[in-house]
Amino acid sequence: MGLGEPSVRKALKWVNEQLEENPKADRTRLIDEACRRFDLTPLDADFLYRNIKSPPKE
Fold this sequence. Notes:
Elements: H1 5-21, H2 27-37, H3 42-51
């Protein structure tokens, strides 16, 4: 377990909550905000970008 892991979990939870409220929200913007809110490292940010689902295709 890395030191940043609890922050990453909180950030992932926060982004997912935002997406539940607004599924069409800009994921990049949400991840950028989560990185600032939870003081994530670039590696943590990369993890979020890879693990947050893309919006559904219409």
